[in-house]
Sequence to fold (44 residues):
Amino acid sequence: EVAIEKVGVLISEVLHNLENEEVLADVKARVATLTNEYPLYPSL
Fold:
């Protein structure tokens, strides 16, 4: 749930800065990090 909240905040940042490529690149990198930390399908 913590990761979902973080992603929501990141999406909000992008939506408020649609013209800013730096924000988009930063958010993409941070979401990738969160995906690695909290995989959707953890290996069994």
